[in-house]
Amino acid sequence: MHEYSLVQSLLERVLEQARAHDATAVHSVTVRIGPAAGVEPDLFATAFEHCRQRSRVSAEAELIILSENERWSCPMCQSEIGRGHQLSCPSCDWPLRLTAGDALSLERMELEVPNHV
Amino acid sequence: MCDVCGCGDTKIVPLEIQENLMASNDRVADHNRRHLQDKGQVAINLMGSPGAGKTALLESIAHCGARGRQMMAITGDLETDRDARRIERAGIRAVPITTGTACHLDAEMIHRALHAHAGAECRYVFVENVGNLVCPAIYDLGQNANVVAISVTEGEDKPLKYPVMFRHADLVLLTKTDLLPALPDFDLAAFESALAQVMPAPRVIRVSARTGDGIDKWVAWLDELHPGSATREHDHHHHAGDNPTPRKEGAAHA
Questions:
Q1: Element of type H or E holding B149
Q2: How far apart are alpha carbons B14 and B187 in whole angstroms?
Q3: Does residue A93 have a pLDDT over 80?
Q4: Are B52 and B136 within 8 A, CB to CB?
Q5: Radius of gyration of chain A from its Cα atoms, rounded to whole angstroms
Q6: Which of A114, B38, B91, B144 could bridge across to B68 with cysteines, CB 3.0–4.6 Å?
Q7: What span, in angstroms and rounded, lies between the C-alpha atoms of B158 and B160?
Q8: Confidence at B152, pLDDT banded by 50, 70, 90
């Protein structure tokens, strides 16, 4: 359940931004979690639901989780190979490299800021 | 609504961030890596399920001549310092970290442990992570290499079930091989095939801490990590645009 640790540090980062912008509330938080990131999106969402309550500013924040496709490619011939195969290039026998799918990032957030600030 | 003055009038301000969620951990991990490098130390993050034999793997190499005096171990467990005491009895200086409820060690915990034992003269720093095939995988600690221990009793399909852990491994130690005669269903070829589907350059050493089989190969692998040789930096979170040189040479099986 490292998802709770991740959400806690995410919310610290989000609230830091909210303070810096004099926001009264966090409207939404968008993260990207790839299928090879080692993080379970459902658990992440549950942890967020729980942890956002700790601050009035984040209590109503909506969590948006984006994904991405997992891709492996040969660093020599650049050919792409899907999952479920041996992770070495069929032509070059070179170890494949994960080129996408392990994203674990805070993409953007929306803050509610009073008009007069 | 605005609760500064109660005017009820707010605007939505979008902020593009594009920041890795592991960024703060990774900054501390990089600091640890520099610290270890400056001291000429090699750090190994030893991971695996509870009961995979991680502590026995450390005990097994402590008995190899004088090498025990050149190692220290940082052991992570939810509760108790039992592993640290076992390792100390084998002759390796050990620092226990009890994580309470946390299922993994992070870079900050290692940073504190390294500072608390800054005077320790050693060549290898082993981090015996919390027994868990999931959570520790994504936390960079500043190590030079990840070693995953998996025992023959865990079954040959574990790499497919826990791909992230095995993808991050530089070496897999298949432990408790002395039990293989009692496990006719364990198919080594199937295990290695499963591993090759999640680990781009699979490297496996079969060991038995009980009989000592394969321990010499595990020690030889550690010797390759000597500070004189090139540092293996981890590819945690870095992929697109990296230079195409693989971090592992070939796909040699030990």
A1: strand B145-151
A2: 54
A3: yes
A4: no
A5: 19
A6: B91
A7: 5
A8: very high
Residues B37-74 have pLDDT tens digits of 999 899 999 999 999 999 999 999 986 645 444 889 99
A102 contacts in B (CB within 8 Å)? 237, 239
Contacts of B244 in chain A (CB under 8 A): 75-76, 97
- Contact status, residue B131 vs residue B154, Cβ threshold 8 Å: no
For the domain B29-224, what is the CATH code? 3.40.50.300
Q: What domains lie within chain A, and their CATH numbers?
A: 2-69+101-112 (3.30.2320.80)
Mean pLDDT of chain B: 85
Best residue of B17, B138, B235, B242 to probe chain A, by most A CBs closer than 10 Å: B17
* Paired strand residues for B117: none
Which residues are paired to B206 by β-bridges? B174
Question: How far is CA B63 from each of CA B56, B60, B71, B173, B232, rounded to the nearest angstrom?
Answer: 11, 6, 12, 18, 26
| DSSP designation for B246 | -
Beta bridge partners of B13: A111
Question: Could B106 and A6 be called an inter-chain contact, meaning their C-beta atoms sit closer than 8 Å?
Answer: no
Percent of chain B as helix, strand, coil, to the nearest 5: 35, 20, 45
The predicted-structure confidence for B199-213, as pLDDT tens digits, reads as follows 999 999 999 999 999
Q: Which chain B residues are within 8 Å of A7, Cβ to Cβ? A: none
Nearest to A87 by CA among B195, B197, B203, B239: B197
Q: In what order do the strands lie in the sheet with A104-114?
A: A62-66, A25-33, A104-114, B10-20
Query: In Å, how far is B160's CA from the nearest CA of chain A?
Result: 9
- Coil vs helix vs strand at B161: helix
> Looking at per-residue confidence, does A36 or B116 come out higher?
A36
Confidence category of residue A116, pLDDT binned at 50, 70, 90: low
| Residue-wise pLDDT tens digits, B80-126 | 888 899 999 998 889 999 888 889 999 999 999 999 887 667 889 99
Number of A/B CB contacts below 8 angstroms equals 147
Residues 6+ apart with CB under 8 A from B119: none
